[in-house]
């Protein structure tokens, strides 16, 4: 089985040592956690895990504290990280994160909601990061080596929604390179694709999409206040939970 363990950094609004105890207890009960470090002074929690980031964040916030994702990867060597927030109009469906684990392995970590229960959807990287006409202007599925018999690089496979219309996933892709897909887009399609018998064009229309933008690696994001809004990261996190 492929090694999906990597490090994730969260800022958590801890007030005292009792908060550290609550976080430690919560993470201890979560299967898939290899190790974790809790730093009260820095309000930082670093987790080594094979779980999607959304599950770890949910566990941290089950303590009653707010947790903000800050970065992912290895703090010794950062080969690249990126994120795409999938939207349709003003509605946000979720996000997909990319972390380059090594030259031939990219960890893809996603959390998507507002889907029809038990339905499957194809997820593709498209050539263009052009949302001027919504998802229709993102071009074709990204495939830098069309003359080979290898898989279509931008075809990330299918996701399945649970009974509440949510899909959480994490896997390793050996074709994606973060530095090649930044500036392109991720599209969530209305149908799934049988990878053995069908083409990516059978996935139907895109129901949500987002541009792939560079994101912070481990220990790279030290901001506590958003320069665009002037709000603290805790205020912004509270707003996203409400809406």
From TrEMBL:
Its cofactor is Cu(2+). Residues 5-68 form the HMA domain. Gene3D superfamilies: 3.30.70.100, Superoxide dismutase, copper/zinc binding domain (2.60.40.200). In the C-terminal section; belongs to the Cu-Zn superoxide dismutase family. This is Superoxide dismutase copper chaperone. The gene is LOC100206300.
